[in-house]
Amino acid sequence: MSAGCGPDAEAVTRGLGFDCHDVSAVVSVRPPWELAHWTMPLLELLVVGGAVFALVHAIRRYRAGDPVNLALWCASLVYLFVTEPPLYFPEWFGLDRVYGFIFAHNRFTVQFMADRLPLYIVAFYPAFSQLAYEVVRSLGVFRRRGALTGSVAVAFVCQVFYEVFDQLGPQLKWWAWNPGNTIVNDPALASVPMTSMVLFASVSMAAMTYLVVRLAPRRGWPLALRILVAGVLTPPAMAIAGIPSGLAGENFTARAWILGVELVLIWSVGAVVVGSSLRFPRDEPLPAFTRHYPAVYLGGLLVCWIAALPAYFAARDGVTPDGSGLYTLACFAAAGLLLLALTRKAPAAG
After folding, report:
1. Which residue from 331, 9, 316 is spatially nearest to 168, judged by alpha carbons?
2. Do residues 53 and 293 make contact, with C-beta atoms less than 8 angstroms apart?
3. 281 neighbors 344 (Cβ within 8 angstroms)
4. Rounded Cα gap, residues 249 and 255, in angstroms
């Protein structure tokens, strides 16, 4: 049996259409037209292109005297390489009894770590963290309200933009969760574990943003060291935020209520913070990244959701275990309103 390919991993990957025993240990490359679904190369282009665009934008801001964007871009990769390997191979870190096998990605064009880590996931971290930070920064929240309040707004922006993607992935078999893992994957909203929705989609990105915003502008330490500290401290911050739901143990109803209340708080507090910023006219031009990428990201995922609609409507009573259509619709609406908010009184910048 291949390392990391136990019975659970074998069952999940076969459901995706491949065998986890038949993988390349380091890296694999395959033609995009051989992928399982036509939306997969589109997703790769959307995310990898976004990461490159975000890097160009971050370098421009760094040269203009603001190190936060570049520090956030790099800290996202530190966070990725700290948190992803234990998720894919918990047995390597002695965590298999704590977490178990959680999920598997499908096969994309470029894949690392025994086909567990697609290149687009590596790119997703810096692209997405930059998207959320730039939306909030461009609305003036960080400038007027400071790092903590701005990071709370980032949690909300991350939630609405990320869940459009997160609720869709299992339906198009971009990845699959292990249904037998009740430690991490229960309770869930449709197929998406609520711990992922709260801790990964909101808390982790907000914590990392707060750390970067506080540390990046400081003098004394080399910027590279401040980036490393921010990326490494993000997973412990996420673990601390997970304590309330963890106290419920195997009482999944209690865990669902706790996580549900936390989701409501993310939406309500974040919406209030963002909404309060709309009382002030935007006095800063929108950079090209903020002007274009969030809309392109949302539009690309809308195309992918349209591709998934036949399966959604074919499900019993319009409900599919692969994704929550109603929650996604709410996220689309909130993200669309955020894009509209960015356009008000907005002189353009390159």
Report:
1. 331
2. yes
3. yes
4. 8
